[in-house]
Amino acid sequence: MRNILSVMLILMLTVSNIYSISYAEESTKSTEPQTTQSSSDKSNRKKTADDSSDKKTDTSDSNSNEPDDASNSKNDADSNETSNQPDVQSDAAILINSNTGKVLYEKNSNKRMYPASTTKIMTAYIALNRLDFTSEITASKTAVSIASDSSKMGIIEGEVLTTEELLYALLVQSANDAANVLAEAVSGSISDFVNLMNQTAQDLGMSNTHFANPHGYHDDNHYTTAYDMSIIAQEAMKNSVFAKIVSTKSVEIQPTNKYDKVRKFSTRNSLINVRSSLKLQYQYANGIKTGYTDSAGQCLVGSAQRSGMDLVTVVFHAPENDPERAFIDTKNLFEYAYSKYRIKTALTADELASTCNVKWAAGKSHLVLKANQDVKILLPRENFNSELLTSEIKIYDGIAAPIKEGEELGEIKYYYDKQEVSTAKLYASRNVSRSYVKQFLSYILNIWFLLILGVVVVIILLRRIKEKRRIARMRRFRKQHNRGGR
What we know:
Removes C-terminal D-alanyl residues from sugar-peptide cell wall precursors. This is serine-type D-Ala-D-Ala carboxypeptidase. By secondary structure, the protein is an alpha+beta fold. The protein folds into 3 domains: 1-22 and 440-486; 31-45 and 353-434, Sandwich (Peptidoglycan synthesis regulatory factor (PBP3), Domain 2), CATH 2.60.410.10; 70-345, DD-peptidase/beta-lactamase superfamily (Beta-lactamase, 3-Layer(aba) Sandwich). It has 12 helices and 18 strands. The chain has helices spanning 2-20, 24-29, 70-74, 120-130, 141-144, 163-173, 176-187, 190-204, 226-237, 240-246, 325-340, 436-485; strands spanning 35-37, 60-61, 92-97, 102-107, 136-138, 160-162, 250-253, 263-266, 285-293, 297-306, 309-318, 341-347, 354-357, 366-370, 375-380, 389-395, 408-416, 419-428. It has a 6-stranded mixed β-sheet with strand order 1-16-17-18-14-13, with no helix packed on it. A hairpin with a 2-residue loop joins β10 and β11. α1 (2-20) packs antiparallel against α12 (436-485) and α6 (163-173) runs antiparallel to α7 (176-187).
């Protein structure tokens, strides 16, 4: 029995050496940071309306063009701000750093409000995703039949306009008729488009939103929240065409088959309109959309970018006695954020974030993981302590070939003073094909292991049985010996 066991052990060690030799180089070269493992296996790797025309811990800093001294940024703060919070008089508001998704300020952000023409952000977002930018669209009688007090560009039944022209009219002039024409072009009817708007809102997580039309003309059943509106605003600003349109100060629509004059429109967003009062303009603003109805009051969805730090704001129902208040509130929110926070690049898109070993890999099993996009972290301007900035990497369990480049295999989280400030997914930097030889050998090793384990168990049992028999014989011998002595 011992000879059999010895032979089996020798065979197992030989196969094991053959199987493991291909991993030796990677194991000695591994530079993988310390990680925490998840419990998931490979199969779970992925786990308007009436806009009034007059009315890793060592990170690289991205603020190289901006003074790092917090006091320099504080000089921009609004004189009305008398506390650590911005002066916001609108009924509902929210301020978000869109680099990280962190909410920096909120006021009644989940209260249902009427959005007025800020609704058109959703309309434009859907149209950009569903229509060709150069497509020609013919306006129907239904589309141009809007309320007389609506904001409009004066589209004529049968007039042909491109998607591009309609989007500029929608977002710069805030044209309700343009919203209807786009809606019919996307869905065939306005009602079907509204259903699509509501479905899109649900898909994006806008759980407290319901649209009744594509432009925001007042309807009691047409509502949203500041928080929900910030979701679609951030999503829309990821589209470079949308971002370009909402930052446009003025636009001209050339003559068409029904209208022989050039239409000229200027933005109603005083933050970026050079003709507006200087106290309302904001040099870092780049959008997004105004809104007004009697019920909604003055509304504004704003955006700004400064030294790599992107902001999105929403203010709903500014005080009725101050037609400029929505812009002032938004400026105060911007200045508050830029005086209190700054952005650092924690990890670049092409930088090695971590490594992992891939089971059954053909060739090298050592795989580099990357974030595939720059990872930004939001940090305080005052009293920043680099020792409080830490990171944690989690590599998913059960990583085995084949692996596709870009496949999600882990995540990295950054913390400042134990508070999470950013998180990003980690992806495979290359394809990894499967070695069926290695897979087969691993199965063989498992079989050998089970066989050896079984043999060991049998030997132990046999020895115990043998020992029991020996003890029994000794007892019988002693008993017989005692009887013979008498």
